[in-house]
């Protein structure tokens, strides 16, 4: 018997979803608790609050207070040492009511089955990622972000896997799989294979990156479509942000993904019962696991749900770029081996290193610290003050060569810039290598822009043209170009003004993600990548 094959169960689920079509203003905590208790679950709540470092203008929030509601279905045939999670974010309005209703319908159906060997936790979290972060910190007794939350009164076993459900429309035409998590982490590939296998089995149209899979792989258009899909994954992974609630599970070594019901291919229709069958099948498979998912890849890129590119194929491309840096460093080492006419002073090499990293530290700390002062003296909001301060500090770093040479006791020697460039090239090679191991997409994009800059820059090239090229290859311009490129990949091109506004929004969101969830992209760029780029800028203007 499949899920909801009984007409009475199907009718009950339809009635529940009909009641949920009324807009939900805020989290209906009491109603959710009563509904979960009526379905035989152990029901608990968790209150949390968080004051953002500056207002999030995208979601219009600053002081966030909310409540998570979760119910635990205890495993009847096991010692209750392991658990699975099914979550649905409850957002203001009626954006995800269908997902909450389906979650409650599945809870009622699962309660009547006796084959569960793992606890199943049904979680309805408020304020999307903030609520999920509070719940995960409470579940694992950690507090890495400084959020205030009440301790969890009920816990299940060690979480083995999790799925987050989002249904953005009453009419669902396809199910989209979202894999990209915080800091570019990805779940085990077997989770994606499981989703694709069940979609094929029950006839659900499935997509990744919102792209429908094509069958004409050998054609030019099919190849172009696959590359476009894979590049979308690269851009999302490089952003370092979590593209769904599942992304926060990955930092706790829990394999998780977000399943989104989207309405884009209108010639197809998927009813809520079919989505329920899909989730039931996946959870029954996960229920049978004797160990965590680990047999397949953790590092991969997906041009479609049925194909993947493993780390063994894409890492050599990064390796070729890294070889350029090593060869350039070897060339500089050979040049330095010849007897110099005058040896460079330690101060001439150490000073640019120190000032570059002090500038990076200012870029990391000043935007949030100076927002109140900026708001008092300029007609800008707090968010605008943070972004504009970051841009101002970044731009002020271009004056670094002049400030550096004022601190030097004398002019730099010919050997001095070679020593500085040798240090900078090796620094960049190590930095990009470590970044690529954590987040390949981010490391590869940075390598595409920074490696050419590191290879050609010397004090003897034309200053104006080289300075222009170096600015174009800087981290800030790379981010700006990435915004426009991402929109082109999504087939939603924007004007320069709209792209610039999106660029400013991406900067503010990156700073917020670091403060709220611990995203590493902003501190990586501010404290390491930008100072490294400043070293090459200093070499260009070496005197």
Automatic annotation (TrEMBL):
GO CC, alphabetical: GPI-anchor transamidase complex
Keyword Disulfide bond: yes
Keywords annotated in UniProt: Disulfide bond, Endoplasmic reticulum, Glycoprotein, GPI-anchor biosynthesis, Membrane, Transmembrane, Transmembrane helix
Subcellular location: Endoplasmic reticulum membrane
Membrane topology: Multi-pass membrane protein
Biochemical pathway: Glycolipid biosynthesis; glycosylphosphatidylinositol-anchor biosynthesis
Keyword Repressor appears in the UniProt entry: no
Listed transmembrane segments: 297-326, 424-457, 464-486, 520-542
SUPFAM superfamilies tied to this protein: Zn-dependent exopeptidases
GO BP of this protein: attachment of GPI anchor to protein; GPI anchor biosynthetic process
Any matching Pfam family: Gaa1
Record-linked InterPro entries: Gaa1
Quaternary context: Heteropentamer. Part of the GPI-anchor transamidase complex, consisting of PIGK, PIGT, PIGS, PIGU and GAA1. Interacts with PIGK.
Reported function: Component of the glycosylphosphatidylinositol-anchor (GPI-anchor) transamidase (GPI-T) complex that catalyzes the formation of the linkage between a proprotein and a GPI-anchor and participates in GPI anchored protein biosynthesis. Binds GPI-anchor.
Name assigned to this protein: GPI-anchor transamidase component GPAA1
């Amino acid at each position: 018997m499949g899920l909801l094959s009984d007409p009475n169960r199907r009718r009950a689920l339809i009635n529940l979803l009909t009641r949920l079509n009324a807009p939900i203003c805020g989290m209906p905590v009491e109603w959710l608790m009563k509904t979960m208790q009526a379905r035989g679950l152990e029901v608990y709540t968790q209150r949390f609050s968080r004051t953002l470092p500056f207002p999030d203008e995208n979601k219009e929030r600053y002081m966030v207070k909310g409540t998570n509601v979760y119910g635990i279905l205890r495993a009847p045939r096991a010692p209750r040492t392991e658990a699975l999670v099914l979550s649905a974010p409850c957002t203001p309005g009626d954006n995800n009511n269908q997902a909450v209703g389906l979650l409650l319908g599945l809870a009622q159906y699962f309660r009547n089955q006796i084959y569960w060997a793992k606890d199943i936790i049904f979680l309805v979290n408020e304020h999307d990622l903030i609520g999920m972060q509070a719940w995960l910190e409470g579940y694992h007794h950690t507090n890495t972000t400084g959020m205030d939350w009440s301790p969890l009164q009920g816990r299940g076993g060690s979480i083995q896997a999790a799925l987050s459900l989002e249904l953005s429309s009453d009419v669902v035409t396809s199910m989209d799989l979202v894999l990209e998590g915080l800091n570019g982490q990805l779940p085990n590939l077997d989770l994606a294979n499981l989703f694709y296998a069940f979609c094929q089995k029950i006839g659900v149209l499935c997509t990744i990156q919102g792209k429908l899979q094509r069958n004409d792989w050998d054609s030019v258009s099919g190849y172009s479509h696959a590359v476009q899909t894979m590049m979308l994954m690269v851009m999302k992974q490089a952003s370092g942000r979590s593209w769904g609630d599942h992304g926060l599970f990955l930092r706790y070594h829990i394999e998780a993904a977000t399943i989104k019901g989207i309405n884009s291919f209108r010639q197809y229709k998927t009813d809520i019962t079919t989505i329920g069958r899909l989730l039931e099948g996946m959870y029954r498979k996960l229920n049978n696991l004797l160990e965590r998912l680990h047999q397949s890849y953790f590092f991969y890129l997906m041009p479609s749900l049925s194909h993947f590119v493993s780390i063994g194929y894409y890492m050599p491309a990064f390796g070729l770029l890294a070889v350029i840096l090593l060869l350039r460093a070897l060339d500089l080492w050979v040049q330095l081996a010849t007897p110099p006419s005058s040896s460079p002073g330690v101060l001439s090499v150490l000073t640019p290193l120190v000032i570059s990293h002090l500038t990076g530290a200012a870029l990391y700390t000043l935007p949030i610290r100076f927002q109140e002062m900026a708001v008092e003296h300029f007609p800008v909001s707090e968010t605008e003050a943070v972004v504009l301060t970051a841009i101002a500090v970044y731009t002020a770093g271009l004056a670094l060569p002049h400030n550096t040479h004022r601190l030097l006791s004398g002019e730099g020697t010919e050997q001095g810039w070679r020593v500085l460039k040798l240090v900078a090239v090796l620094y960049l090679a190590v930095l990009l290598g470590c970044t690529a191991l954590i987040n390949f997409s981010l490391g590869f994009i940075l390598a595409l822009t920074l490696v050419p800059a590191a290879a050609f820059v010397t004090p003897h090239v034309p200053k104006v043209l080289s300075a222009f090229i170096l600015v174009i290859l800087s981290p800030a311009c790379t981010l700006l170009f990435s915004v426009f490129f991402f929109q082109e990949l999504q087939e939603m091109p924007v004007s320069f003004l709209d792209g610039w506004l999106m660029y400013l929004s991406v900067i503010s969101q990156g700073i917020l993600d670091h403060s709220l969830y611990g995203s590493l992209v902003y501190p990586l760029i501010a404290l390491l990548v930008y100072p490294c780029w400043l070293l090459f800028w200093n070499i260009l203007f070496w005197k």
